[in-house]
Design a protein that fits this description.
By secondary structure, the chain is α+β, with helices and mostly antiparallel strands. It has 2 domains: about 80 residues; about 50 residues, no CATH class. It is rod-shaped. It starts with a helix and ends with a strand.
Length: about 150
């Protein structure tokens, strides 16, 4: 009886070994297939990313070139039309001069049709209105004063 049991166990073990071998072969095959597929997908993704980065670099260079061209053309247009519109120069990111800002303010009064004169003490007055611009020495700033202000 002892010999019969041992033989039966060997047969079960051999059958199990055959099944395990088949399962391992299938598993290894699937692992190899999955690994190859993953490698292919990484290669495709890497190439797609590289193409995208090249496109972004190209678009940034094109945008920078277009921006430089626009600034040059805008500056040429401003120069051709007196070139001293400080607000336009500021919006375009071009250099502005503080003296030009002051000149623009005085020109704004002229453009609005407001008569003014500069008094000997430096005040800028409107002879037909109730407001003037004076320098506040304590604050070290110019300020608009309404004659009704105390």
């Amino acid at each position: 009886m002892f010999g019969l049991t041992t033989t039966r166990r060997l047969r079960i073990t051999e059958a199990q070994r055959d099944e395990n071998g088949r399962l391992l072969t299938e598993a290894y095959g699937q692992i190899i297939t999955d690994t190859a597929r993953a490698a292919r997908e990484r290669w495709v993704a890497r190439n797609r990313l590289a193409r995208t980065l090249r496109a972004v670099t190209r678009l940034r260079a094109d945008a920078a070139r277009a921006n430089r061209t626009a600034r040059i053309l805008a500056e040429q247009l401003l120069d051709a039309t007196s070139g001293q519109n400080t607000a336009a120069r500021t919006v375009l990111g071009l250099k502005t001069d503080p003296w030009q800002h002051a000149t623009d303010g005085l020109n704004a009064l002229v453009d609005a049709g407001i008569p003014f004169h500069i008094e000997p003490d430096g005040h800028i007055s409107n002879p037909s209105g109730n407001e003037h611009i004076e320098y506040d020495r304590a604050a070290q700033r110019w300020r608009l004063v309404h004659d009704t202000d105390g």
